[in-house]
User: Which sequence fits this backbone?
């Protein structure tokens, strides 16, 4: 038998039933129970070993009160420890009533079990901690002997179940008649692209935003002054029905240079050719890319092409587009003589150039029907101004830089252009104004800021993939522009979070092109 290292004072322990088990080489072999009574002796002793053999000795011992007897003699909590060693006798020791240690030659054994009975008159609760190789697992169980407690717990569980059911099946407000139902296009009807595009609004996510954008642009194009009541300050001309029916919304179209590098350039050219928009704003890249494409093509590449490799080949990458550096050499050869002529006219005619006048001149000189600048220049037919406040930011700026050394003196005045640009918005009345912006940055802000001068635009559609969470103007939703007075509070607006090369041609197909406005 195991030797006890210190004497144990006799505790008062009520009748308990405890399980003890052993783990040998990672497997539980046997489990037996021991009942202990007030006499402090084992009524049933168990032996555990590998495969049922008596190779191990089990030793069980009651450990004393968790409370001081002088404090509460009627309340006694006991703790039972059971330890098994496969070879030799088990030795036991304990330090405090709350913790017990099983030692074999002062080393932690393979298996240790500590069971704490928490006795109450309603039942007995057990907690078991098993430590194997430094890893502890815990299990607990409660046995009630009182029928009243069982009924109380049953009622508590019923109330909890009712609360869970109420939370899971919360009554909802009816949306019938308030919102459109989500449903996609039924291809059983055949491939009908107009119907497919019309179905976008009910598809959900950005398809719905695209559908909303189509609706906003159609409202923009359908608006006539005749739709409005005649104001007290209306001129005599504005009171004439025929005149009022001819007054349409003024459309500002802004786009970034990458879209001109892409095939969206041809969509823009279509709109300008047929005078479907009234004012264009783009970057320097948007100007030069339109002109360069008249001199040499842009090619499809791949987003993953290595930059160093492309540089060694003289190829410039724009996303998955490739522009040979020779294209810019051709551009230089074409534009420098034009700058020379503009400088001469400046001197001879005391002419002051502006970015928009320079752009119109380039549209005239390119004389290519694939160019939207060419169609914007056609003053008699279209008279569409093209503004570029960042005229020096790009290859166009490079050409101005080199020309300033070769033949210095050319002046481009941006002040005249800001007056002209803001005037397009300020003097739009009695027309409404609509904004369509592809991408973000300079074109987006320049158009919105001009419309602030008239207390905001009446329609706005933004198409880009930029996010608003870094505070960038590119990613800002239309509602942010409302706070600045750049878009009116009652304006019809939508932002489509989508690559404009996908969304814009589809939008044009269902709006401008379908209406065939000339």
Assistant:
């Amino acid at each position: 038998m195991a030797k006890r290292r210190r004497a144990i004072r006799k505790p008062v322990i009520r009748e308990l039933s405890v399980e003890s088990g052993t783990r040998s080489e990672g497997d539980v072999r046997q489990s037996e129970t021991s009942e202990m009574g007030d006499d402090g002796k084992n009524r049933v002793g168990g032996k555990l070993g590998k495969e049922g053999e008596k190779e191990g000795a089990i030793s069980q011992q009651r450990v004393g009160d968790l409370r001081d007897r002088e404090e509460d003699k009627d309340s006694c909590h006991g703790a039972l420890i059971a330890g098994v060693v496969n070879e030799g006798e088990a030795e036991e020791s304990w330090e405090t009533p709350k913790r017990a240690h099983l030692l074999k030659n002062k080393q932690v054994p393979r298996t240790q079990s500590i069971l704490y009975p928490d006795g109450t008159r309603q039942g007995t609760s057990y907690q078991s901690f098993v430590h194997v190789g430094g890893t502890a697992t815990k299990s607990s169980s409660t046995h009630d002997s009182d029928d009243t407690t069982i009924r109380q717990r049953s009622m508590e569980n019923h109330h909890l179940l009712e609360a869970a059911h109420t939370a899971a099946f919360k009554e909802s407000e009816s949306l019938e008649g308030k919102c459109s139902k989500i449903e996609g296009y039924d291809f059983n009807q055949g491939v009908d692209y107009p119907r497919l595009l019309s179905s976008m609004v009910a598809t959900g996510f950005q398809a719905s935003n695209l559908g909303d954008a189509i609706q906003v642009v159609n409202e923009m194009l359908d608006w006539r002054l005749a739709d409005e009541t005649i104001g007290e300050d209306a001129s005599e001309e504005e009171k004439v029905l025929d005149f009022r029916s001819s007054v349409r919304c003024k459309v500002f179209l802004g786009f970034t240079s990458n879209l001109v590098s892409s095939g969206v350039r041809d969509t823009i050219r279509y709109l300008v050719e047929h005078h479907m928009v009234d004012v264009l704003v783009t970057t320097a890249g948007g100007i030069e890319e339109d002109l360069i494409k008249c001199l040499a093509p842009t090619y499809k590449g791949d987003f993953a092409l290595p930059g160093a490799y492309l540089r060694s080949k003289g190829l410039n990458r724009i996303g998955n587009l490739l522009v040979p550096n020779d294209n810019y050499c051709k551009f230089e050869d074409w534009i420098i003589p034009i700058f020379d002529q503009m400088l001469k006219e400046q001197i001879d005619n005391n002419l002051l150039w502006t970015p928009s006048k320079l752009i119109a001149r380039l549209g005239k000189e390119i004389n290519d029907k694939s160019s939207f600048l060419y169609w914007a220049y056609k003053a008699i037919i279209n008279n569409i101004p093209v503004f570029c406040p960042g005229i020096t930011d790009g290859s166009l700026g490079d050409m101005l830089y080199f020309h300033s050394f070769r033949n210095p003196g050319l002046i481009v005045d941006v002040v005249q252009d800001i007056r002209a640009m803001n005037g397009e918005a300020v003097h739009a009345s009695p027309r409404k104004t609509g904004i369509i912006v592809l991408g973000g940055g300079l074109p987006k802000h320049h158009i919105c800021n001009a419309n602030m001068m008239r207390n905001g635009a009446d329609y706005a559609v933004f198409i880009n993939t930029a996010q608003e969470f870094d505070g960038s103007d590119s990613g800002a939703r239309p509602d942010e522009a409302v706070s600045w007075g750049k878009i009116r509070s009652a304006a019809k607006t939508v932002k489509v979070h989508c690559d404009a090369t996908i969304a814009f041609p589809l939008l044009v197909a269902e709006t401008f092109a379908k209406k065939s406005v000339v």
Observations:
- Residues 1-145 have pLDDT under 50 and may be disordered.
- Residues 190-515 form a domain with the Deoxyhypusine Synthase fold (CATH 3.40.910.10).
- The CA atoms of residues 346 and 352 lie 6 Å apart.
